[in-house]
Specification:
This protein is α+β, with helices and mostly antiparallel strands. Helices cover about 55% and strands about 20% of the residues. It has six helices and five strands.
């Protein structure tokens, strides 16, 4: 009887030790996840836009630029204080092509801000250059890595994929 109790106790100690070891593995795995997440957050809107912009998007303004800071309200209907990072690349010569990237202090309003931007662009182009309306109507808005994106382009899916691969 005494040997049976000792055997059970030894099995219990070994069982707890094995569980403790597997717990440390899951901690190291979450550290890896955190490392991946922190590398994503190191990308700036400028980094993302410079890699994702198509050749037709020659006009650029980034968060650190005075031009961007002075036009945040006009572009997105928000004050500069609400923005943590952002930027825009867009086409010229009457093209509706655009990629906007924003990171707001209040993440919950970012999608609404970009939806309003699409509505504004539709209003601009509806009578000015109706041939651009299919791009605007097919605009993509999505969140990735803490940033919100708006893509207006001939092939927004290709640009979206480029962004996914970066993030």
């Amino acid at each position: 009887m005494y040997k049976k109790i000792i055997s059970i106790a030894i099995c219990a100690v070994i069982g707890v030790s094995v569980c403790g070891c597997s717990g440390s593995d899951s901690k190291s795995s979450s550290v890896k996840d955190t490392a991946v997440s922190s590398s994503v957050s190191e990308l700036t809107a400028k980094d993302i836009l410079e890699k994702a912009a198509s050749d037709t998007m020659t006009q650029k303004a980034f968060f650190e630029d005075e031009k961007f800071q002075n036009n945040i309200s006009k572009l997105y209907g928000i004050e500069a204080d609400n923005l943590e990072d952002g930027g825009i690349v867009y086409g010229d010569n009457g093209s509706a092509d655009e990629i906007s990237v924003i990171r707001l202090k209040d993440e919950n309003s970012a999608k609404k801000v970009l939806e309003a931007r699409v509505e504004y662009r539709a209003t601009q182009f509806q009578n000015y250059k109706p041939s651009e309306m299919p791009k605007i109507n097919a605009a993509e808005i999505f969140e990735e890595g803490g940033y919100w994106f708006l893509i207006i382009a001939d092939d927004p899916g290709a640009i979206h994929q480029t962004i996914d691969e970066m993030m």
